Amino acid sequence: MARKAPKTFEQVALENDLASEEQVKQCLAKQEEERANGGEITPIEDLMLEMGFMTEDNVRAVRTALDRLQRDEQKGEPVRIGNYEILGKIGDGGLGTVYKARQITMSRDVALKVLHKKWLSDEEFKKRFLLEARLAGRLSHQNLIQVYDVGRDRGLYYFSMEYIDGETVEDIIEREGPLEVTRAIDITMQVLRAITYIKKFDIVHRDIKPSNVMINRGGIAKLGDFGFVKSKLDHVISTEGEVLGTPDYISPEQAMGVENIDWRSDQYSLGASLYHMLTGRPPYEGSGSAVMRQHIKAELPDPRTINPEIPEAILHVLERTMAKDPNDRYQTTSEIFEDLELVKMGQDPTSDRLAVGKSTIIRAFKIEQKLVQRANSEVEVLQDELKRTRKYMLYSFVISGVLMVALVLVLVLLVFRNS
Fold first, then answer.
1. So what's the pLDDT on residue 162?
2. Contact 147, 133 (CB under 8 A)
3. Are 188 and 330 in contact (CB under 8 A)?
4. What pTM does this model have?
5. What is the average pLDDT across 265-291?
6. Do domains 78-163 and 167-355 have the same CATH topology?
7. Which site from 1, 112, 245, 325 is most exposed, i.e. has the minimal number of CB atoms within 10 Å?
């Protein structure tokens, strides 16, 4: 097998977001110009400094990383961070890079999130990164990605979490296009269960979107990436008017930098994610700022113009979860569950015949399910009783037959004796 070429300064700088592709191109073009003129070639790191693309601290960090990679290659040892052996890169987030890794002591695969080096000199981002790990580590729910461990090694901040053998909802949409309605509702309800759970801890996720929802091989949806969570501790690191989140799914209040947002902001993002699942694309298009302005003021585009197969019954759920005013949205998660259940049953949540008692219908449906289950259980009990009765009757007939035979034998013996 051919030996893998060592990484260059610019590759490491790009991987860690310390330089842009355009900046690298400019530096390489400068080197080509020097080469064409027959002059001395300036190292790319020196050009980065001269052209103001990188700071001395950033250059020093990249050089340190390169030295470490070279030492690891010479030793022939895998790259390790703390108690974890890096197996490969999964992807990048707003705060860090996620790797697939092997936890050596527990002998299990994990997802290891490592804070981007560009944030190591930023105390606010380090605090937010650690806050994400601490908050997520306290949570335990079937529809949340479980966090295992948090630590620091050679100046790197990291935390490990459950490795999901599956793919994101965004990946599924990109491969398959718009999802079938029942499937989209099922994923939405699973994420809603996660929202209901973190709501108990006064936690707002603030970045619910298809790329942050993993689907494992068992079909279980798991919400992850708590990099933008808002909790009671958020005042420690937030600044007034800051905007965090992803523009395509951001709530109006979040886009406006409102400080006191609650779970209804996550409800809006979940509605935008459901819209994406049903249509194959987010509700609004344009630049980040243009999309945020549309979330604040624009009317919700009719998803049926994109996907005519979307039933009218689900429009009410989309319009209400994505209402501009949080007070016009659902005020409890149970209301959302009820309307989604009605849509799954083929009912329109806004129908007049359901207006008085849609919750009653849901309860009746659930009661009917319980009655059916109870009836099935009673049938099973009766069948067991019938089997036992038949068994006892069979035993009785056998025993009676044996006794009759024994009695006949005794009578025969008595007759022979008397004769």
1. 92
2. yes
3. no
4. 0.64
5. 96
6. no
7. 1
Q: 14 - beta bridge partners?
A: none
* Pure H helices in 239-357: 252-255, 263-279, 288-297, 315-321, 333-344, 352-355
On whether the 78-163 domain is CATH 3.30.70.270, my answer is no
> How many Cα neighbours within 13 Å face the side chain of 158?
25
Confidence of residue 373 (pLDDT cuts 50, 70, 90): low
Torsion angles phi and psi, residue 232, rounded to 5: -65, -25
Gap between the Cα atoms of 236 and 228, Å rounded: 13
CA 200/CA 257 separation, integer angstroms:
23
Q: Which residues pair with 221 in a beta bridge?
A: 215
- For the domain with range 167-355, which CATH number is right: 1.10.510.10, 1.20.1070.10, 1.10.10.10, 3.40.50.1110? 1.10.510.10
CA–CA separation, 153 and 349 (whole Å): 53
Burial of 196 (C-beta count, 10 Å sphere; 0-12/13-18/19+): middle
- Domain definitions of the chain by residue range: 1-77, 78-163, 167-355, 362-419
Nearest residue to 127 (alpha-carbon basis) of 102, 95, 153, 103? 95
- Tell me the C-alpha distance between 408 and 226, whole Å: 86
Rounded distance between C-alpha atoms, residue 79 and residue 88, angstroms: 10
CB 252 within 8 A of CB 268: yes
- Asked if 207 and 245 count as a contact pair (C-beta separation under 8 A), the reply is yes
Read off the tokens for 45: 């790191």
- What residues contact 73, with CB distance under 8 A and at least 6 apart? 4, 6
| pLDDT value, residue 232 | 41
- The residues assigned a catalytic role are 207
Neighbours of 407 (CB within 10 A): 10
DSSP 323-359: -SSGGGS-SSHHHHHHHHHHHHTT--TT-HHHHTTHH
User: Hey, what are 160's tokens?
Assistant: 């490990």
CA distance 238 to 230: 9
Report the alpha-carbon distance of residue 191 to residue 183 in Å, rounded: 13
Residues facing residue 159 across a β-bridge: 113, 150
Q: What is the pLDDT of residues 390-406, one digit of tens each?
A: 766 776 777 877 788 87
Burial of 95 (0-12, 13-18, 19+ CB in 10 A): buried
Q: By C-alpha distance, which of 60, 109, 65 is closest to 84?
A: 109
Residue 313: how many CB atoms within 10 A of its CB? 19
